[in-house]
Structure formats: structure tokens, C-alpha cells
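Task card 7
Instruction: Convert sequence to C-alpha cells.
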Amino acid sequence: MNLHSFFRSGTSHRLRIALNLKGLAYDYVAVDLRREEHLSEAFRAVNPQGMVPALEIDGQIKTQSPAIIEWLEERYPTPALLPSNADDRAHVRALASIVGCDIHPINNRRILEALRSEFGADEAAINRWCSTWITAGFDAFEALLAADPRRGDFCFGDAPSLADIYLIPQVESARRFKVDMARWPLISAIDAACSNIEAFRLAAPRNQPDAS
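Output:
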């Protein structure tokens, strides 16, 4: 199993967590976004969209982290990343979607590069842009956590789920863009709980072979 990844990519980060939680070993293939390696002919032969992550397994290449994680859940169902109850699954998926659909897509690298190159945004403006959308999403996420009486140490219950897999990379990104996490004590507590789990620690950007 080969994982084409960039250490600081939030989507790569979430997939690394999922693979680790499932106990699946993989070979790390670094794709340096800073050097535009994702736009090279060689990488576009792997993923025509020119984006990480991409997972090579059994002679097939899988792209798009939501699709890959759902595939992992179906192919390797234990430990489960989604609850057994349909209503609970919808809740966990909704939490994950706040990050995956509403925060990350407008804060990812290609958007920020467009803001810099086409609209003249400096780093202070980039941080304000990212903070705006992270704050809006995290405010909603925190409210949903607070309203759930069954919440344990993690986003849902007492074991990591799909929601935690999406949340933790976004917390990492929030810190990179200088967002004050003190505003969200429940999210911060979940981040602390996840930091005690090896699968999350090993997936962290700073622990990747291409980290610099």
C-alpha cells in the first residue's frame, strides 16, 4: 500500500489517521506541494487531478480522502469509524462535513495561492481569511458538541470516529494560521484526548518523513 502524501496537507493528515486507526501499514510517498510536484506529469499519471492524497493498493489508485476513508471503512470494518445506528452515523458525518465541506475547501493551498497571486493578499490577510471560515465552522462544531449529552472524550462517545479524523487536522491548520483555540474548549479537549492516541500522534505533520 503506497500513500502519496504531503506532510502539511490536511486531507493527507486525515487519511493517515484513518489508516493508523485501522492498523494498516503503508509506504509513504512524499509529494512536495511547495515544489509543485503535484502538478508534474509523473504525479498526474497517479492522480489526474494533481492533488494529494492518493492511495495505491492492489494495483488500483484511489483518490479523494472522503471516498478513500469510506472505502477503508467498508473494506476494513474494525475498528469502526462510524456508529452502528443510522441517526448516529448521520450526526458523525455532519460533524465531519463541517470540516470537509465548509472549512477546508476554502482554506486549502490552491485557494490561498490564488488569493496571494491574483488578489495580492499578504500573510496577514491570508490568516484573516482562514480565521474567518475556521471560526464560523468551529463555532457550529462546538455548539453541536455541547448539545450532545452522549459525547465522551471524543466527538461522539468514547472512541475516535470519522468526526475526530476530520477535526484534528483542521485544529492543526487553525494553529498554523494563528487562530486562538481557547474560544472552543470542547474542541480543544478532544484534540488533547486524541493527542494521547498513537494513531493520531504518528499521523501528525511533524512526524512525517517529509516534514521540514
